[in-house]
Each structure stands twice: as structure tokens, then as C-alpha cells.
């Protein structure tokens, strides 16, 4: 069965092609700053938005009628594996990501769910061996099932906490079976609705213990993928504990987890937190916890988590600049946590969505590489802070001053001459790198 008919492998054809099903910018084998584009970008496709999502939104049911639907949930799950790997192969994407519930029906109990997972992951493993496609990360969905209405590892119900631990244990076993390179924790309902009935400290301690147990278990089974926490400020909970990169770092430091975790940062989550994407990446870099990214874009006018395919060149360029400054993302990568608009109903639109995302990040990579190669921002920043290269500035940097010294210095000197940033010119220069 062919699920994406009429289209072969998506190839790089360059900017002038009229072929909708071609890359215009992403050329996997092309070298940028001494490394192949595909190795810089390490693209991954998300199972949930691609093969499981049916086009529903808050106001209406699904609009997609996929040709991989079977007569039972398990038959659909099996067809999805074939369809997914056909899509990955056609897109020349080497990685994928999934939640446990994306790949197999949950049945009527955890036991039934785990049996279904065993059967489907056998099929996934076969496909991985056949195609060479690898698992960037998997994760446990601990937010959809009604038992998780108060959270999972921050639930007030200890029995629910145990179910969450069982799901993550299973997730780590699967990660080992599929040689996963990372494992993600996104705290969907790990937060609170109202402080009036919330024991904040207990919830934080419990989730910290949960993470420690996950690390211990990974060590015990001799397979420790890079653990990643994905911050998001709200949706579905009103207040989510992992609000943004800075909040999550504070939590990891307080509970002695910083050495075992990095962050998986998402474009739309950054903007929901009132930040730009590159702000989140820069903060993560500062604390040496930039692990991986979920590439998507918000629809500013709607203002919620719309998970659009990335299409904005400036955002992609500034994100790629941070990634280059980080020395790359490996073992992390760029996962398209992005879904089609509800009106893009053909299966082949999934190819077009990913082509858009991949071409956008390819352009971002090239522009960021040029900014880095020419040293434009590096020189500008160096010059802007040059007062710390000499005199009193150097003393401050070296820790050779005190408040008394600085008091004397400030009073002895004339009013400081503060220079213009010319930031409008800088923004214009960055725009020049985009074209
Ligand atoms: C939700 C979100 C999740 C995580 C994985 O906003 O981004 O899909 O990426 O649970
Ligand atoms: Co995400």
C-alpha cells in the first residue's frame, strides 16, 4: 500500500524549481561551515501531528480522512507505522519522535496498553532496521487520560503518580529497545489550576524524586539517553511548573538534577512565555543545557499553541545562530512539533508542511553561518563591551575592585559618555543576511 501517492523521494532542486515536491533550499549533503546540512539540522518528524492527528480543533472534529485507517484501532496503529516510515523515507528525514499513546491504542488498562506498545514497537524496530531511520526521542503522554487531570508526577493522588512512573519506566525500556538518543519529559498537566488547594512544595519535591528515579532506572538498565525537559508556560494547565528555560534551570539546580538533564525548547512555547525563541536558546546556552528543539511557529493573532510549520526566516536564522554558537545540538536535533492547518486535507500536504519547515531551517542555517563566518555579531558585541577590556572595566572583570574603589572612581570621573547602539542599523544588516 502506498500512502503518499504520486510523489517519490523529495530531492533538492534549487530555488528556481516549479516542482512543489522538491527542496528549494535544503540540500542534505551540502557542506556549511565544514559540516553537512543534514548533520547540522538532524531533522525529526513528530508522530503525533503527522500520522495520529486528524485535523480536529477546539471548535470542530477532524477534517482529515486518512487512507491508513483500518477496521480496528490496532490495525490503524499498524498501518500508521508503514505510512510514517514511507513519509520519513520520502522526506529524507533520519529521525523521529513519538508519545507512547501516538503509536498504540491504550486499551482498557495499563497492561493492555503496554502489550500493544510491545507489538507496535516490534514493527517500528523492523522499519528502523530496514531504513536506517533513528529515534531522536520518545516520551510518555501523561496528560490526556482522565486519571491525569490533576497532573502526573505532581498529582495529589499517589496512585496516579505510580501510573505515571509505570509509563515512564515503559518509555525508557522502549527507548533502549529502539536505541533512542534522547528521552523527553513535557509536563503537560504538571502545574496547578489554583493555589487555593495546592501544596506547591510537595508537588515540586515529588516531581524531583520522579526525575531522580528515572535517572536511576536508566543507569540500572545500562541505557541512558540524554534526558530533556520541555518548558511551556501554560496550556493545558493555567500555571505550568516548567514555565520557561530560566524557571526550569532553577528547578533543576535546586533539586540537584542539572547534571542529568538538558532542555528541549519549542518555538511556540517560547512565545507563549512572552519570549522570543532565540532568547530561550540563549538562556539554555548560558547554563549549558541547550539539548534539542521543537521547531514550530505561533500564529500571533490567535495567541495560543498553534504549532505551525516554521516559515519565518528571521526566527529560524536567530535560532540557528544560537545553535551554531552552541556547537550544534547533538545528540539532540530539530523535531517538527508542527501540524498542518485543518484546511490542508490531503496526505501529501504532510510532505509540503515538512518541506516548508526544512527549507526554512536550511535557509536559517545558511544565513546564521554567514553571520558567524563574517563575525558580524561577534565583532559588534565585542566592541559594545570593550570598556571591560581595559582600565576600571578590566578590574571589574578580574574581581579586583570593591564598592569603595568604585565609589571613589565614580566621583573622581566625569559623567560617563554613553554611546548610541544604532540598533536600527543592526536590524537592517541582519535582514540583509536573510536574502
Ligand atoms: C505540547 C508539546 C508536546 C511535547 C511532547 O505543547 O509540545 O507535544 O513536545 O510531549
Ligand atoms: Co513540543
Automatic annotation (TrEMBL):
Annotated compartments: Cytoplasm
EC primary class: isomerase
The keyword Magnesium is annotated on this UniProt entry: yes
Keywords tagged on the record: Carbohydrate metabolism, Cytoplasm, Isomerase, Magnesium, Metal-binding, Xylose metabolism
Cofactor binding annotation: Binds 2 magnesium ions per subunit.
Binding-site residues, Mg(2+) 2: 266, 269, 305, 307
Primary subcellular site in the record, as a coarse category: cytoplasm
Catalysis: reaction(s): alpha-D-xylose = alpha-D-xylulofuranose
Names of required cofactors: Mg(2+)
GO molecular function: magnesium ion binding; xylose isomerase activity
Family, as annotated: Belongs to the xylose isomerase family.
Entries under PANTHER family matching the protein: PTHR48408, XYLOSE ISOMERASE
Protein name: Xylose isomerase
